[in-house]
Amino acid sequence: MVQVKRVVRYFADHGPQNTEEVIEAVAERLREGDISTLVVASTTGRTALKSAQQIGPELVRIICVSDPPQADCYPGITPENRKLLETLGVLIVDRVPYASTVYSWGGSENMYGALDLRVLFFDAFRIVGGNGLKVAIEVGLMATDGGIVRAGE
Description:
This protein is 42% helix and 8% strand. The chain is mainly alpha-helical.
């Protein structure tokens, strides 16, 4: 039987102070060579840009998933970051609705007045792995919904 050992990193708090270490951990995992696509959640494009600069698009295909236009409470990808990302060959997904739209906009009931299953789905991920796990799954679904990533890729 093959045994795989991995290092798990836990952060005391969420935030941009963890970005560098997360990118280092991702780069370390990507060097194993069995992953061909990296999906990065990045509201302004800054995290995707850092990832592309440190990891390099020659190692893997990098996809930046940002907020859709209806998320007007977030700034979106800046024009400068968009240009830099495109120059580096990073694909951008920012026209796809959130996978957890019902959750994100606070609607917890479906049209029949029952609790929407998407709320339970995303709450389960948040409870088990925190908001980071929820966001990771969500941006993966958004990249798939946008046709940039094939299911199972």
